[in-house]
Amino acid sequence: GQPDPSVPPSGLSCSGCGAELQCCDGAAPGFVPAEKYRSLSESAAGLRGAVCQRCWLLTHSGRALRLQLPPEQHRLVVSAALRRPLRHGRGPLLLYLLDVLELPDPVLPQLPALLGPDVPAAGLLVVGNKVDLLPADSPGHLGRLRQRLVTACVQAGLREAPLVDVRLVSAKTGFGLEGLVSRLQRSWKCAGDVYLLGATNSGKSTLFNILLRSDYCKSRAPDVINRATVSSWPGTTLNLLKFPIINPTCDRIFRREERLKEEATKTEDQLSSEEKKYLNHLKKQGYLVGRVGRTFQRQKGIPVVDFDPDALSYSIDEDPRHSPRKREEREEFTYNEVKDARWCFDTPGIAKENCVVQFILQVLNLLTEKEVKLVLPTHAIVPRTFILKPGMVLFLAALGRIDYLEGEKSAWFSVMASNLLPVHISTLNNADAIYEKHAGQELLKVPMGGEERMKEFPPLVPQDITLKGIGTTEAVADIKLSSAGWVAVTAHAEQKLLLRAYTPEGTALVVREPPLLPYISTIRGSRIAGTAAYRTKKPPSLVENLKTTGKR
């Protein structure tokens, strides 16, 4: 599609990313090809509810268009939104979403500075997302993860913030979402607006979409407001998106609680075939699954059938005449529905600024769309454990490498990364040759594209790490290899290990102590004879708000 610089911007927002729709600059946000822009402008519905070319391509073909945006653009949008004049006499509730896989969250420490003394926030609710991707390494693992979030909030200087709660959810599978809605309605009610904040790729737009189809929004909102565009590419949302929050009256809360009680008594066998199919789909994607329902369904009226007797009367020699189909008009809120509404806003992701996450952004910008889809985990991560002796090397694709240099005994290395990323074990003597030969090829897989591809990719540079083991069933630390994932290291008590970890040049890896899942090495099968690998073992999925039958 071609741009037309003579046409001014529309003044209307893309319903997928929030950017202003325009056809004058193909490299700017909100671009719609000029021909399509004109045809939409001349239609009955106009541009209202339309999506830009970038959102259309992300949704329908998974392609991500590069945009010419200043580095601070997303942060400026968020900062300006938070500094709006007070509505309804009080500041907004800030719902900060973080990716638990990325702990320690790099943006959380920046939150106090971003808010500043001039942001009149009335409350802060911190939500850890993507817990469905992590297996339960021990009983009570969710409580331990939640405590990690609480500690991260304190370390980030949020001790004095009006912290409402800390919760764990999966915006993708629905786990914890009904509890989050109940918490919002009990503590915040409909007192003011709510802003979804967080780093890029933390899942804000996915959460926005699931809340849009929950008891948290007005019953007619899903028919009026389009879903936000969701993709694995960072920075998909470019401006504010919003839906109106329902007023949780006593009657509504009572009806909602009755629905939740009734659903909690059901077993999987009592679900409809469609519900079972969708539930099984979610189980394949995550370890933790939740069912998000709606109590306040909109009652749609009976459609009126236009009766045209002339169109129904025809002779035996004539064909029936069909009236042309009318274009369905887009629904809109009435003035009275939204004049005093409180809104839930989805905001652009905040760019991660420390050295570790700058690498994540650089790597994702270097990777092709196929490579991004391989690197970012979208399904439950199956831990892969290997037992290494000193002098052995572990490759995680061509994105990271760990050398076991010194130690008295063997140690266990558990890889937590996308199931699509290959792990290769080698000896120290052969490791350099293997990287030179197979980086960019099928064995190491990412990056892909051979020698030409690797010429533009940063070389791996080393960093030495010293650890002391605490036992054969408990990891001492995670070695986080940027956005590729991490390796949990488990060693005999008091055993000292000297490791050398590699990540692409210009980056810094993270040694996470204590590890996120300290007992992850115990989730494994039997040793595969003649190799350093153990058979993988995937724990079963857990569905909340559903009565168990005792079956596995």
From TrEMBL:
GO molecular function terms listed in the Swiss-Prot or TrEMBL record: GTP binding
Assigned keywords, A-Z: Coiled coil
Coiled-coil ranges (or none): 250-277
InterPro entries (alphabetical): GTP-bd, Mito_transl_resp_regulator, NOA1/YqeH-like_C, P-loop_NTPase
Organism listed in the record: Ciccaba nigrolineata
Taxonomic lineage of the native organism: Eukaryota, Metazoa, Chordata, Craniata, Vertebrata
Residues in G domain copies: 194-244
Protein name: NOA1 protein
SUPFAM superfamilies cross-referenced by the UniProt entry: P-loop containing nucleoside triphosphate hydrolases (SSF52540)
One of the Pfam families matching this protein, by short name: YqeH-like_C
Source domain of life: Eukaryota
